[in-house]
Amino acid sequence: MCLGLPAEIIGPHEGHPDLMVADIAGVRRAINTSLLDFPPESGDWVLVHMGFALSLMTPAEAEDARAMLNIMAAE
Amino acid sequence: MNGAQLFVRYAYPPNSLGYCGPADSAALLQYGAAGVVDPGLVELARGFAGAWPYLELIASGSGISDPLDRRVVEAYWVGTPLLDSLRLGHIAASMEDRFRPRTGLQFPHLVESVLAGGVPHHSFHVFCIYPWVGLLRDDRKATAALTVLDRCRIRWGQVESLDGDRALVRSRPLVYDGHDLAFGPPRVESALRSASGLGYLGELVPGDWVSLHWDWVCDRLTTRQLGQLRHFTLRQLDITNHRVEHRGAALAVEHG
């Protein structure tokens, strides 16, 4: 029922080396980055689904995705 | 129980984990615990951008005006004959209107799944739309993918015992043999039925059959509901295993 969400990496999470803190639509959450080929860095954008970062996104792709989500929220 | 309250029971578990829906999961739990339905709850439900279009599709296709009508909500989460009453043409047209802008490059895959017999049941979204089935073929990602698929589908099990906020439930998890998804041997899992005493289930007793979503018990199931949930889940697994191709993570919704 849930959609992939763009998230901006804030930094490492203290709880587990696979976890990082990310900003998802203004809310900071722990996400699992172990499925990415390389660990993301602070400021990177990733596509998050069910708590896992699945791929890196360019800032433009993240902006497009956020715009789509805003349109859907306004419907 | 009305449809909005039933929606809360199934939507709260992933919402509480931050996976979907509005940020205020505490409000959703409060609504569920209080049994209240008001415009605030309807707004929260509309904020589930993944589920809401399916509710709209089922409602419009069956001549029901309210997407939160009990018949619609139960059809989406559990499954009812209402799903088979939807005309293929309506599903296809509705998918075009409601899902093409939201699924981008994944839309043809969605249509393929509908033509293979998919209906707007939650299992359709989990197994046909999400990227996780495609990730099962990647050894490095298969374990995580199988876990997500199993936790995200609506599964069923029988209560063995109760302990405070938790219930021990016997159920059969998904397994993957490298080709097909199936159900493995029964195992007992610990699931939440309340948080610090706050919940929406009421009385549970050992022997009850229940539905589960992520780490929560959602609802007690009648024999009819148990049969329907099993029927629509198995049907979707057959489509997933044998009738459609699955691609990889690049097809995640909202990206591409």
Which terms summarize this structure?
heterodimer; A: 75 residues; SH3 type barrels; 1 helix; 5 strands; 41% strand; globular; B: 256 residues; alpha+beta; 5-stranded antiparallel sheet; two-stranded antiparallel sheet; 12 helices
Describe the structure.
The complex is a heterodimer of chains A (75) and B (256). Chain A is an alpha+beta fold. Chain A has one domain: SH3 type barrels, CATH 2.30.30.140. Helices cover 21% and strands 41% of the residues of chain A. Chain A is built from one helix and five strands. A five-stranded antiparallel sheet of chain A has the order 3-2-1-4-5, covered by helices on one side. In chain A, a hairpin with a 2-residue loop joins strand 4 and strand 5. With 256 residues, chain B is of the alpha+beta class. Chain B folds into two domains: 119 residues, no CATH class; 101 residues, Roll (SH3 type barrels). Helix content of chain B is 48%, strand content 14%. Chain B has twelve helices and seven strands. Chain B has a five-stranded antiparallel sheet with strand order 5-2-1-6-7. In chain B, strands 3-4 form a two-stranded antiparallel sheet. The C terminus of chain B is likely disordered. At the A-B interface, strand 3, strand 5 and helix 1 of A face helix 11 of B. Chain A: GO terms for molecular function: carbon dioxide binding; iron ion binding. Chain A: InterPro entries: Hydrogenase_HupF/HypC. Chain A: One of its GO terms (biological process) is protein maturation.
